[in-house]
Structure formats: C-alpha cells, structure tokens
Design the sequence.
C-alpha cells in the first residue's frame, strides 16, 4: 500500500529555527550599542520587544503595515518606552539595521532538527519536504540558506508571496498545489496550536502540533514535544 503522507511541510520560526533566542540576543546587543543608554531592564525590554513584534506582525500579515513599516513601529514604540524620545524613520531604520545584523548572526536550528531530518531521510525516503511560513519570503529563504536547510526544504511557501497568511486555508492549499498533492497527502508541523496545527487540519492537511513548552494538550490534532518523535508519528498516520 502506498504511503498516505507524501509530503511534509514545516513551519519555520519556533519549529525549525530558534527565532526567539536569536531575537533576544540581537536586542540586547543592539540596545547596548545605543550611546548614553544606561541601566536598562533587559529582561523587561526583551518581553516588550516580543509583544511588539507579535502585534506589529499581526498588522503586517493583515495588510495594514508593510514589512518595513512593522519594523519601524516596533523600534519607535520601544524607543519611546525606554525614554529615548520620538525616533524618525531614518533613525529607526539605522538602529534596526544593527539589530538585524545581530539577529541574522544568531540564527540557529533547534537541536532536534538535524536528528529528525536524518531519521526522516532514512525511514520515510519517499517524503517531499518543504516549509510553509508567515513572513517575508526573501528573509525566510535566507534563514534556510544560513542554517543549511535550503537544499532539503526545496518547496518554500511564504505568506508574502501567497497572498494569504496562516491560519487562512488559502496558504495551506497553495502549498499543496505547489507540491501537486491533495491536502490529505500532506502533513504540516508547527509550534502554534491554533495557527499551525489546527489551521492545517481545518484546511484538510494532517496537522501536527510541536508542543515544545509541554503545554496542556487537546485530544486532537496529534501532538509531539520534539521533532525526534515526528518519524514515528508519521509511520503511525500512514498505517
């Protein structure tokens, strides 16, 4: 009997690439580079930066802000809250360029990524692999290249090119179309329950939740706590 799952798509940030750690390292370094800024509560700044990122990205994904605009909003909001006054666009862009340099330098895959991909190559050789991600396509492809996954995840579907963002079914269906497969022939794994796993399931794919934080789990969809458990789960689904 032919395998039921013919392709596997991954979320990127929080699933394959440790975005949060890279962002926090970059923020600390970028704040330390601001002349005259002393006695910063870095723990508070990191929490606030993450909140601002989530809010700004929501507005970007909804079409309310450009990709550059959401960056400027995060920077100017944080600067004002740190008592640095009102920053204009050139100053915000200059600071973000420094932040971005540190952020890109800190891109790393999670420790379970390489073992999982090696196991998939051995146990599920038929699988076609790709990435389906919210965000700017150029930046997301750059991440894959930087961490050495570009040659393995050949299909990359990003919201900036798809015209829709997760959790909308359209982006998942575009991913299936790119693979020339029906939704029920594709599995999708991501670290966000609603945006990734449930949204993929609602779109007709086999949604899988990567629950890295060991949060309370619902009965459905299937849950794993590490990508190392992914090959075994796919074998179970294929039975």
Sequence:
């Amino acid at each position: 009997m032919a395998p039921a799952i013919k392709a596997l798509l991954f979320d990127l940030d929080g699933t394959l690439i440790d975005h949060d750690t890279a962002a926090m390292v970059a923020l600390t370094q970028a704040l330390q580079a601001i002349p005259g800024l002393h006695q910063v509560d870095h723990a508070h700044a990191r929490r606030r930066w993450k909140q601002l990122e989530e809010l700004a990205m929501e507005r970007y994904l909804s079409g309310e802000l450009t990709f550059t605009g959401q960056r400027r909003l995060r920077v100017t909001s944080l600067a004002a809250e740190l008592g640095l006054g009102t920053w204009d666009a050139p100053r915000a862009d200059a600071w973000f360029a420094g932040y971005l340099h540190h952020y890109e330098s800190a891109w790393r895959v999670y420790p379970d990524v390489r073992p999982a991909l090696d196991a998939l190559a051995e146990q599920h050789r038929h699988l076609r692999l790709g990435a389906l991600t919210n965000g700017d396509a150029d930046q997301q492809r750059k991440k894959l290249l930087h961490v050495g996954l570009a040659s393995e995840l050949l299909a990359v579907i990003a919201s900036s090119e798809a015209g829709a963002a997760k959790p909308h079914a359209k982006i998942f269906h575009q991913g299936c179309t790119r693979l020339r497969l029906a939704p029920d022939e594709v599995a999708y794994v991501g670290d966000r329950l609603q945006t990734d796993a449930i949204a993929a399931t609602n779109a007709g794919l086999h949604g899988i939740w990567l629950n890295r934080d060991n949060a309370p789990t619902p009965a459905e969809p299937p849950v794993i706590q590490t990508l190392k458990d992914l090959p075994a789960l796919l074998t179970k689904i294929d039975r």
